[in-house]
Amino acid sequence: MCFGRRARCIGYKLLILALLSIVANILLYFPNGETRFASEHHLGKYVECLHGILGGGFLVLIPAAVFIGLHNDDCCGCFGHKDCGKSCAMLSSVLAAFVGILGSGYCIIISALGLSHGPYCFTHLQRNWIYPFTESSGGYLFEYNKWSECQEPQNIVQWNVTLFSILLVLGGIEFILCFIQIINGILGGLCGLCCSHEEVSHL
C-alpha cells in the first residue's frame, strides 16, 4: 500500500470519528433531549468545554481533510521533480497530524475529567444544584446505588457517563490514528514514494 492511500484511509476514519464526537458533545448539552437545563445554566463545567465539538471535532477535521486530499494531489513537485513534491506533501501532513493530536488529546483529557468529576445535578439531600460525586475521584462510577442521589436531570449520571465514555474512546482512537499518520508521513516524505510507477502513469 502506498503512503498516500494509507493517509487517505486514515483521513476518512478521522472524518467519521470527528463527526461522531461533535454529535456526542451536542447530546451532552441536552440531557434526555431536554433544552431547559442548558438555558438555565444547569450543566456541568466539563460539558461546556467543547472538547468534542472543538477538540475531537473541528481540530480533527483539519488533518482529516489534509489526509484525504493527499492521494488525489497531482503532486506537481518542486523545481519539476514530482517525487520531491510528493515528499513535501507527505511531510506537510505530519504538521496536520500534530493538530489532530492536540485536538484529540484535549478531548481525552476533558472526557476523563468529566468522568472523574461527575455530573452537576439537583440532589434530594442538599436540595440544591451541586457536584455530589466530586470527592469520590471517579469511585461513583462503580457505586450504582448512589446514582439515584441526582434527581434532576433524570438519569443524568447514566447520560454523562455514557457520552463522556464515548468521547474518551473516540478521542483515543483519533489520537492513535494521528500518531500513525505522523509515522506514515515521515516515512513517505523520506522515501519519496507516494505511489507505484503504474499509479503515477495514470495521474
UniProtKB/TrEMBL annotation:
Pfam families: L6_membrane. It is a multi-pass membrane protein. It is found in: Membrane. It comes from the Eukaryota. Keywords: Membrane, Transmembrane, Transmembrane helix. Belongs to the L6 tetraspanin family. PANTHER family: TRANSMEMBRANE 4 L6 FAMILY MEMBER 1, TRANSMEMBRANE 4 L6 FAMILY MEMBER 1-RELATED. This is Transmembrane 4 L6 family member 1. It comes from Spheniscus mendiculus.
